[in-house]
Write the structure tokens for this entry.
Amino acid sequence: MPLLAGGAIFSVLGLIGLIVWWSEFIGLLQGAVPVFMLLGGVLAIYVGFDEMQDQIRQARQLQDEELEKAREEIETAKAEASRYREELDRMKKDTRENSTEK
């Protein structure tokens, strides 16, 4: 209850002060608005730069994942080619043995 009463009293005093010192309040706003705009702009630049870095980081991670996937596919293809080469060599050897036997 005391908090409610104190809030009401300070609200009325604030309204009276705003009416009495209106021109000073406008002067304060005229000085504060450009500062707030400057700070807001700097904050927006920082957030935009940070977001751009995150996008670059995600793109690099995606490229690394694709590169790793391509390397795995190359290794699989190499293993398969090696297996086919061994099978071809074995077939050639079998063919030579069968030709010499006849």
Summary: The chain has a mean pLDDT of 92. Residues 2-101 form one domain.
